[in-house]
Design a protein that fits this description.
It comes from Elaphomyces granulatus. It is an enzyme of class 1 (oxidoreductase). InterPro entries: D-amino_acid_oxidase_CS (IPR006181), DAO (IPR023209), FAD-dep_OxRdtase (IPR006076). It contains five helices and 15 strands. It starts with a strand and ends with a helix. With about 350 residues, the chain is of the alpha/beta class. Bound molecules: flavin-adenine dinucleotide.
Length: about 350
């Protein structure tokens, strides 16, 4: 049997999902090499900070939309049948105010989104049930992922399939080929997220951070909720989601482009908490304001936003095949299996070309 030596550079949701999908082919001998691994909390490592839920943002006929569509069946399966993955179903209530859109959602018409027939229990809220100032709203069932459980679960699935994990920091993407546990790799999969902006051989200046600040609390609203904007500024948003298996509730948030600040801003934290209690008073005991919130921690993550959407493509750099899978902005989980499937296809194509070149 031909053995394909592959290094996956990066152990966020993109790297781990790609490694997991690649590891299902016994010919692939995989090392995941990364500066940060599940269990770490760092501003250069986005994945642990995510909510994370499934709420498509890509237009129906875009690559994004397709990747999100292709990811839903797997997330549904995990929520339904694999409790140890740390994913559960939650009812989602979207509240929309068409005048104040924060600018990150483009899933086609918001009144008639393409995913209405895909996600369970989708229904528009009748006009006479809308809160004052709300233009339209809908409910559906989606999933919420406890990243603290899910990322280690992915590591476990990979290890079961023989993937080797190691810490490594590379300056140039091609150097990652030497991080393989069995000799120089045939191919590198680049899943370095926002760091692809500075990584040698990639230096993608179309990447920028979209800073997301959150407050994680013990209170439980009992459902997920998101509004399309808020009165506190175009780069602030309102959402809450309760993670599976005791992971607490994430209160968000912000979507601050080009903002690299790793520290939680205390005034923004107060605005986030106030907005969430306003949207969902039952989050706290009756008569209480934000003092009724029981805070676990404040957090900041930098979404790896890329101007023209994620880069999932192959490239030969200095004689080494590289498959890129980075730049997933605020939708890295909900597009993870779709993007990984495309990346696996590109890996197979590149390896075939390499074999042909040998003949
Ligand atoms: P990362 O998680 O940043 O991983 C990058 C990896 O590359 C790390 O292991 C790092 O150490 C490694 N690396 C980088 N450079 C090097 C180097 N030179 N050498 C070695 N290793 C290197 N998405 C959703 O789908 N749903 C949500 O509800 C959602 N909510 C979010 C809420 C917040 C507050 C935030 C911040 C994000 C949210 N996201 C959500 C977005 C999602 O978290 C990201 O899209 C995703 O985590 C990106 O993952 P990644 O694996 O590409 O990058």
């Amino acid at each position: 049997m031909t053995i394909n030596r592959i290094v996956v550079l990066g152990a966020g949701v993109s790297g781990l999902t790609t490694a997991y999908q690649l590891s299902k082919n016994a010919s692939n001998q995989i090392t995941v090499a990364a500066k940060h691994m599940p269990g770490d909390y760092d501003i250069e490592y986005c994945s642990p900070w995510a909510g994370a839920n499934y709420f498509p943002v890509g237009a129906f006929d875009s690559d994004n939309g397709k990747w999100e569509k292709d990811t839903w069946p797997m997330l549904r399966e995990l929520a339904q049948n694999i409790p140890e993955a740390g994913i559960h179903f939650q009812v989602y209530i979207r509240k929309k105010d068409e005048q104040r859109v924060a600018g990150q959602r483009s899933a086609g018409s918001m009144k008639d989104p393409w995913f209405k027939n895909m996600l369970p229990n989708f229904r528009q809220v009748p006009k006479d049930q809308l809160a004052p100032g709300i233009d339209s709203a809908y409910h559906f069932t989606s999933v919420c992922i406890n990243t603290a459980i899910y990322l280690p679960w992915l590591v476990g699935q990979c290890r079961k399939n023989g993937v080797v994990f190691k810490r490594a920091v590379v300056k140039h993407v091609v150097d990652a080929a030497y991080a393989h546990h069995g000799g120089k790799a045939d191919l590198v999969v680049n899943c370095t997220g926002l760091s692809s902006r500075s990584l040698g051989g990639v230096t993608d200046s179309s990447l920028c951070p979209a800073r997301g600040q959150v407050v994680v609390v013990r209170n439980d609203p009992g459902f997920m909720c998101m509004t399309s904007g808020c009165d506190d500024g175009d780069d602030e948003v309102v959402y809450m989601m309760t993670r599976a298996a005791g992971g607490g509730t994430i209160l968000g948030g912000s979507y601050q482009k080009h903002n690299w600040d790793p520290l939680p801003d205390p005034s923004l934290a107060i605005r986030i908490m106030k907005r969430c209690v306003e949207v969902c008073p039952s989050l706290v005991a009756e008569g209480k304001g934000i003092e009724g919130l029981d805070i676990i921690r404040h957090g900041v993550g930098l979404r790896p936003l890329r101007e023209n959407g994620p880069r999932v493509e192959r490239e030969n750099i200095n004689g080494v095949w590289v498959v890129h899978n980075y730049g997933h902005g605020g939708f890295g989980y909900q597009a993870s299996y779709g993007c990984a499937t495309t990346a696996v296809k590109l890996v197979d194509e590149a390896l075939q070309q390499k074999d042909k070149a040998k003949l």
